[in-house]
Design brief:
14 helices, TIM Barrel, 8-stranded parallel sheet, 11 strands, alpha/beta
């Protein structure tokens, strides 16, 4: 056991990220039942749907689970009220300032974790009293920090800057990746892309297929003038990239993005015109598997790789 497994009362220090359009109650409960920590991704839900997913998740597992709440989301206040009313034990906040909610959530007995991408915000989170932080390198899928700091650089920098429990994210999908993150100073890992390509993920099958077909170089940060997001290169990416290269304004890029672009790609399966958010590590993913099998394989590889290192001489 370490501080992350103790904090969340879980068997393995593996957290399934709360990805939009992919992380419903089925995936969250499956990961929690397998010994990790499953998260419901509220960013693609409205209040009624979130309530339904929390109730179904609780019925499907007697293990701890949590909810990820993007703080820039219009329903953030409503979601905070819901997790308190439903007595959700763990909340991960992201994409915003956790100062507004952290103390209030902790007063309700809820564990609070915030996702950051630089040292400045890691220190701020510790000062605000969060229970742990997720440090996410720019290899990760979805929205990213503007600094574009890699996980391998970010984790040791943040480990030196704060003393609270640290979870690594970005570019981790295997046991070896998990071991590397732990060696850099993390005490747990948050994994998104690998769980998108799981049987229980609510992502559209066509999107899952694009994930397992992806090779190195098939994802790239886009829409940097709005909010950097790592997506699979497709027709939409090409259009956005061309506009950015030609000096399009934020208003023009926002018009291209429109509303529901990520739903179109990840949930409805339009792999040409939709936004397909996934990490660089998709190049290592080549099969859709049950979430429990994914957790088992990660832990098995982690233990074997750790043992092999112990027997290596320098």
């Amino acid at each position: 056991m370490n501080r992350i497994t103790q904090l969340f009362n879980i068997k393995y220090p593996i957290i399934q990220a709360g990805m939009i359009w992919s992380s419903g109650w089925e995936l969250a409960s499956a990961v929690s039942n397998a010994g990790g920590l499953g998260l419901i991704g509220s960013g693609s839900m409205d209040p009624q749907i979130l309530c339904e997913h929390i109730c179904k998740c609780r019925a499907a597992t007697d293990k701890p689970f949590g909810v990820n709440i993007p703080l820039i989301f219009s329903y953030a206040d409503d979601f905070i009220k819901i997790v308190i009313e439903e007595k959700v034990p763990i909340v991960f906040t992201s994409a915003g300032n956790p100062g507004k909610y952290t103390a209030f959530l902790k007063e309700q007995g809820i564990k609070v974790v915030h996702v950051i991408a630089n040292v400045k915000f890691a220190v701020k989170c510790e000062q605000l009293g969060v229970d742990a932080i997720v440090a996410e390198g720019f290899e990760a899928g979805g929205h990213n920090g503007r600094e574009e700091t890699t996980t391998m650089v970010l984790i040791p920098m943040i480990r030196k800057a704060v003393s609270i429990p640290l979870i690594a994210a970005g570019g981790i999908a295997t046991g070896r990746g998990m071991l590397a993150a732990m060696a850099l100073g993390a005490e747990g890992v948050q994994i998104g892309s690998r769980f998108v390509a799981s049987e229980e993920s609510s992502a559209h099958p066509a999107f899952k297929q694009k994930v397992i077909e992806a090779k190195d170089g098939d994802t790239q940060l886009s829409l940097k003038r709005i909010m950097p997001v790592r997506i699979i290169k497709n027709k939409f990416f090409t259009e956005a990239d061309k506009m950015e290269t030609q000096g399009a304004t934020t208003e023009q890029l926002s018009a291209l993005l429109g509303h529901g672009r990520s739903r179109k790609g990840m949930f409805e399966g339009d792999v040409d015109d939709g936004e397909l958010e996934i990490g660089q590590v998709s190049g290592l993913i080549n099969e859709i598997k049950p979430a429990a099998k994914i957790v088992e394989e990660i832990m098995d590889e982690y233990c074997k790789a750790k043992e092999a290192l112990n027997h290596q001489s320098i």
